[in-house]
Design goal:
0% strand, mainly alpha
């Protein structure tokens, strides 16, 4: 019975390993779209967004609101594409750190409140993307392959996603 369970579990894990690239892709597409959409909304109503920054006491509210809105819009798009993913996570994390520090923390009274805050969850996803990267199905992986950049995960051995034949 033990061997039966081990065999079934091994087979299932092998199947999941073959499609592990789907996880980062889905997270990037959904999470990136969320930020693209919020960024577009803020850019289209920049005056209203700036007034919120004034109300929160954010320094240089017009500049800060514009920077935040465009960071979300461009960052969301790049995350969806998987292009400059690790790099773009840095300003996105800074954006979240500013939001938590200047806005959200006023309403958080306990550790549980911090853990449950959306901005903390967003920060964790950005941190995961920063450390783990965008995954195999990304422009970052394609660019690395084209440029011959070797990554720790061995992306050089990934089959080409191009018009080249196997003989190339």
């Amino acid at each position: 019975m033990r061997q039966f369970i081990a065999d079934k579990a091994s087979r299932l894990l092998e199947q999941l390993h073959r499609v592990e690239w789907v996880g980062p892709l889905v997270v990037r597409l959904v999470f990136g779209y969320f930020w693209l959409e919020t960024g577009i909304a803020k850019v289209h109503n920049l005056d209203g967004f700036t007034q919120r920054f004034v109300g929160w006491g954010v320094p240089f509210p017009a500049f800060s609101a514009g920077l935040s809105a465009w960071t979300e819009l461009v960052g969301g798009l790049l995350i969806m594409l998987g292009l400059f993913t690790r790099l773009v996570c840095i300003p996105m994390l800074i954006n979240m750190a500013v939001a938590v520090t200047l806005v959200v923390s006023a309403n958080l009274m306990s550790f549980d409140d911090y853990v449950e805050a959306d901005e903390i969850v967003y920060s964790l996803i950005f941190f995961w993307l920063l450390i783990s990267g965008p995954g195999k199905a990304s422009l970052d992986t394609w660019v690395a392959r084209v440029l011959g950049i070797r990554t720790a995960s061995g992306n050089a051995s990934i089959p080409r996603l191009s018009l080249y034949t196997a003989a190339d």
